[in-house]
Design a protein that fits this description.
mainly alpha; Tetracycline Repressor, domain 2; 9 helices
């Protein structure tokens, strides 16, 4: 059977989109190739025409998920600059909305614990995007003299806080984790960077 031009690329992209969503929602180990292909409306047998292995799929899906996440935050925080951008990012990141939309959210809390045990390629991709986020926050806090140091604990509070808020069953406890981590991250950023209450 002949396929129209671009068919393979579109199919490849559909598999990637589906995997990026399912890996974030269910986790890597809990999401098999069958589940990805079925959710993409494709037969499992066609998988290896596009990817060497499930880990190769993860590497590409992880890159896509980070790209989508970055585009989302860029759009959501448009119009804000400097420390105001950092505050808005932390507030939005540690929100109930982000907690409840793992399949569309940041890959770090969704996949971070698993990435440490997976392929070097996926770990490198994760590390690159983590470093970019830390650097971006550092430059927003102090454009004249960017320093990533104050951003590292804030990012850890954001990622760890969201992971824990998703892990617990009690919704009141989950909300409290979000609230406390958000307050701590904002205070840490302002104290360490010497911002006080300015914007």
């Amino acid at each position: 059977m002949r396929y129209p031009p671009g068919h393979k690329h579109r199919t490849h992209q559909r598999i990637l989109d589906t995997a990026a969503r399912l890996f974030r929602k269910r986790g890597y180990a809990a999401t098999g190739v069958d589940a990805v292909m079925n959710s993409a409306g494709l037969t499992t047998g066609g998988f290896y025409a596009h990817f060497r292995s499930k880990q190769a799929l993860l590497a590409e899906a992880l890159e896509l998920a980070f790209q989508r996440s970055r585009d989302h935050w860029r759009s959501r925080l448009q119009g804000r600059e400097g420390p105001a951008w950092v505050r808005a990012h932390i507030t939005s990141y540690l929100s109930q909305e982000h907690r409840d939309a793992a399949e569309h959210g940041c890959p770090m809390p969704a996949l971070g614990a698993e990435i440490a045990r997976l392929s070097p390629t996926s770990r490198e991709i994760f590390e690159q995007h983590l470093s970019r986020l830390v650097a971006a926050l550092g430059s927003k806090l102090n454009p004249r003299s960017p320093d990533a140091t104050p951003a590292i604990p804030a990012v850890a509070l954001c990622v760890g806080g969201l992971l824990l808020a998703r892990a617990v069953k009690d919704r009141a406890l989950s909300n409290r984790i979000l609230d406390e981590c958000r307050a701590a991250a904002l205070q840490q950023i302002e104290t360490t960077a010497g911002l006080g209450g300015t914007s």
